[in-house]
Amino acid sequence: MDPLTPIPALPDLPRRRLLLGSAALLAAPPFLRDARAQSRLALTPAQTEGPFYPVELPADSDADLLVQGAQRYAKGRPAWLDGVVTDAAGRPVRGAVVEIWQCDADGHYHHPGDGGRADPAFQGFGRTSVAADGSYRFRTMRPVAYSGRTPHIHVKVRLGSRELLTTQLYVEGEPLNERDGLWRRLDAAGRAALTVPFRAGTGGDALRARFPIVVAA
Ligand SMILES: [Fe+2]
User: Fold this and answer.
1) CA of 139 to the centre of ligand 1 (A)
2) Less packed terminus of the chain by CB within 10 Å, N or C?
3) 37 CA to middle of ligand 1, Å?
4) Confidence at 109, pLDDT banded by 50, 70, 90
5) CB–CB of 123/67 below 8 Å?
6) Of the given ranges (9-23, 91-105, 181-195), which has the lowest mean pLDDT?
7) Cβ count within 10 A of residue 127
């Protein structure tokens, strides 16, 4: 074909594909349909927000918690936290906003209820919009323990004015998990969903943790 010859239009192709797809689904034997239903992803379990969600968001509330305005935070173990926000069918949740908040390396939150003792160089709270593929990424530090709690990072997912999820993220292999009331309350599937490894990365000394989030959107 001459490269300048217009390609014939196929106006009804998508519709035909759709119809064929529907027919194939209806034709599937019941056990196959059941298997497809069961392949839906489990929703990430919710947990309590706790008392330290910021009363006022910091002026710098981006996805890098180790830089607060002009200050750099050098305590703790730097870590990347990334993942993808999807619905139960595995589709990215476009427009979702992920927030995290955690205490500084000395166990203090930026919150009046924690006495204003948090290090001003640690951002403590970050917020980011997911990319078109649902992915998000924060630079923060491996969470640390504070009185009565195993290391954890608080996580919230919003979509517009809706809160889709509030939960907490734990560190795999952390011995204090077994003594933490909120972690112990989770069943085996919940512990598996919310407890992730913070592994040494290939570049620099930053750890990397991957936390996939599944929400009803
Ligand atoms: Fe907390």
Assistant:
1) 18
2) N
3) 35
4) very high
5) yes
6) 9-23
7) 18
CA 185 to CA 61: how far, in whole Å? 31
Domain count within the chain:
1
**87: pLDDT strictly greater than 60:** yes
107: left (phi over 0), alpha (psi -120 to 50) or beta: left
Output the CA 67–ligand 1 centroid distance in Å: 20
**Ligand 1 center to residue 104 CA distance, Å?**
11
CA of 154 to the centre of ligand 1 (A): 6
Q: pLDDT at position 10, please? A: 40
CATH number at residue 94: 2.60.130.10
Instruction: Please give the residue range of the domain that contains residue 140.
Output: 67-214
